[in-house]
Here is the input.
Amino acid sequence: MKKIVVMGSTGSIGTQTLDIAKKHPDEINVVALTASTSVDLIEKQAREFAPFLVAMYDKKAAADLSARLSDTDIKVVSGMEGLIEAASFDCDIVVTAMVGMIGIRPTVAAIEAGHDIALANKETLVCAGHIIMPLIKKHGVSLYPVDSEHSAIFQSLNGEHHDDIEKIILTASGGPFRMRSKEELSSMTAKEALCHPNWNMGNKITIDSATLVNKGLEVMEACHLFDVALDDIEVVVHPQSIIHSAVMYKDGGIMAQMGCPDMRLPIQYALFGPRRPYLDTKRLSLADLGTMTFERPDPDKFEGFALAYEAARRSGNMPTVFNAANERAVALFLEHKINFTDIPRLIKAAMDNASFIASPSVDDIIATGKSAEEYVEQYLMNGMR
Ligand code: MG
Here is the structure.
């Protein structure tokens, strides 16, 4: 029996993780759940999976949930301390599927408690990879990627030697605006940006796919996760999202992982890999598919993608500034307060304004994130000047 903690259980990855858990009741025991504010859904999940502990980041939501679960033995905790308590709870693996920088401290706590990590929280490695990766080594725990691209790379590395890697080929769908001109982008609405061609995901990551910021974050994540240099990663736009990513080796051979897009596969692989139990996912027919196409990304059109590379090259706390400014800008875009091309404008402004820290601590990262978000608000209030 594998004891798992699911952090961010009410989100897209969290709910699909619980779907996988439900399919394997003899192998997976859900011991703790966490969420920010979604009381209705987490109450339902708590009643179904009967964990020992549920943590709500929002204190009011925690009080509400505690009252609703008073007929059970489930302990309800709150705030950052609550998330850390859940991450440290006796288990085998912690699925980190919360959105945003609130994922960093609980992930550190989980590693320090000796737990393996199924990583779905991008911010952890983007902002704190230089802290997390040595910590993983120090505590002898394993880090399993959940993101479809990183899972595909992880699967393509299975049984191979790290020294034999020539480059990593990270695929991107190109998002819903791949065929739009640069001029057209500014008038794209949130509704249009939320229509992802292949993947059904949470709102924030769907916007990040439309701007290609998501791909930039994934490149930074891959550098840490697979210990490769920025220039050893090639991003290729592959609109059909069939090849989820690949590794080219020094003999010219490419190992790729393919399939119909379904996040449950990488989630299941993170929990069971290298075993591959049956999954009721749609089967890919290569003959029906016929063709797959590939093209280079256009950093001139998708400025957020170019800025991600700038942040990665500058390193230190710049990825945090990039990420936090983007997080705030995406929220403003979803609230219809800015237009689509203002997202990279705001990121750039925040990066230009930030003071550089070469090797930020977790506290520095949180503080950097906070001031980048504040700067975005202030810049917007000043009429984006
Ligand atoms: Mg991805």
About this structure: The radius of gyration is 20 Å. The CA atoms of residues 126 and 335 lie 25 Å apart. The pocket of magnesium ion is lined by residues 147-149, 218 (CB under 6 Å).
